[in-house]
Design goal:
Elements (H helix, E strand, L loop, with lengths): L9 H25 L3 H17 L1 H8 L5 H15 L3 H12 L6 H15 L2 E8 L5 H15 L2 E8 L7 E5 L2 E4 L2 H15 L1
Length: 195
């Protein structure tokens, strides 16, 4: 009998990453709240999210297991300083680099956004569209989502041209996928079942 190859549960790894990010986010949020600097934290989180979206080099740095801790820490410290991030966020990024936890940075940003929105009595909706939404479209979508969830909705929009058209909207644990790509995929699966 040959060697047994074990299975890797990808959802378990994602769950662990979310748990790590949630712990850091809770600590960062509580410290910023104690220091009465939630506005500074929010600005830093938004700036960090923008840099993560724009910089493939930064995404590679935080995901790389071969970049030494000292290099990751030095790079994150320099980035945080240049971005003038809130002190709690800057120190946390350095600690995360030292502990080899930078890979959870995207989840950390999401968790902090959710905590900040909840503090204001809002919910955050992540919206992915094939083309950038206009201001009018964003406002109409926010109003529609407010009617369905009963709270003010902050929209974080991103563009994914592979959707062809339509939207993917995620509010909390609910996701609505009206993208043409998804509809084509469903049609393709239905056609496979028939023939």
């Amino acid at each position: 009998m040959g060697p047994r190859i074990g299975r890797v549960d990808v959802s378990e790894a994602a769950s662990i990453s979310a748990q790590i990010a949630e712990r850091y986010a809770t600590a960062i949020f509580e410290i910023a709240k104690e220091n009465k600097n939630l506005d500074g934290l929010e600005g830093g989180v938004n700036d960090l999210a923008a840099v993560l979206d724009e910089s493939a080099d930064l995404r590679a740095l935080i995901q790389s297991p071969i970049v030494p801790r000292a290099e990751q820490s030095a790079a994150m410290t320099a980035i945080a300083k240049k971005m003038d991030l809130a002190p709690v966020l800057r120190k946390s990024l350095g600690l995360m680099a030292d502990k080899r936890r930078l890979f959870v940075l995207p989840q950390l940003v999401s968790a902090l956004r959710e905590a900040l929105a909840e503090e204001r009595g809002e919910v955050t909706a992540d919206v992915v569209s094939a083309k950038a939404l206009t201001k009018a479209q964003t406002e109409k979508l926010a109003a529609s989502l407010k009617d369905s969830v009963g709270k003010d909705v902050t929209i974080h929009a991103t563009v994914d041209e592979s959707l062809i058209g339509g939207l993917i909207v995620k509010v909390g644990s609910k996701m609505i996928d009206t993208s043409i790509r998804s509809q084509l995929s469903s049609l393709q699966n239905a056609m496979k079942e028939v023939g």
